Hints:
- The chain is α+β, with helices and mostly antiparallel strands.
- The chain has a domain at 130-213 and 231-236: CATH 3.90.470.10.
- It has helices at 11-39, 54-64, 86-92, 104-109, 141-151, 156-164, 170-188; strands at residues 130-137, 196-205, 209-214, 220-225, 228-236.
- It is elongated and about 190 Å long.
Amino acid sequence: MAxxxxxxxxPEAATEETAVTEEAVAETSTEPAADAAEEKPxxxxxxxxxxxxxxxxxxxxxxxxxxxDEPTEAVAEEPVAxxxxxxxxxxxxxxxxxxxxxxxxxxxxxxxxxxxxxxxxxxxxxxxxVRAQAKYVRTSARKARLVCDHIRGKDVNxxxxxxxxxxxxxxxxxxxxxxxxxxxAEHNHELVGDDLxxxxxxxxxGPTLKRFxxxxxxxxxxxxxxxxxxxxxxxxxx
Length: 238
């Protein structure tokens, strides 16, 4: 049997069989690998990252911004909407500056209200005037005016004569005041006493002293002791 030529195999046939077996093994080995690759599950997608807060987002945008060397396009500012709320409008508007104060010079140039004209003083030209005054004279201003009206505008000698012959008690006070005014003119202003005349005489009311007098049935009556301020002004004659 061993010598049967039918059972003997040639080396060429053996090599062909081995090659066929190797190919079959390779095919069988590659097919399951391909199937395994196809059967692999797809990877799951990662969940989307949560949105960053405004501050972190601004930092991220700053990091992603182009460098200073690279030219950037200017972004036009969006106009403010007309229907913006009042709060936004107040924020957008700049604060008004306080009005500047006017300088003192301009303030002085403004027209002032018309002032009331002062009472006209007796005009005497360039002639000097001498004045004497007696205060708290124990007489009423009404009684003093009755005497002074006689000497107004008279010269000194004539005024002396009128006061000397007047029977009222206040005439003595006027006479003393006239002599005082003449003495002021002679000693202070170097004027001649006989060359003067009475320019103005006035009798103004002073404080009133109040006293009481007993009357019938236990009553009290008020007594008013009036005072006055007498003034004489002298000036040289023409």
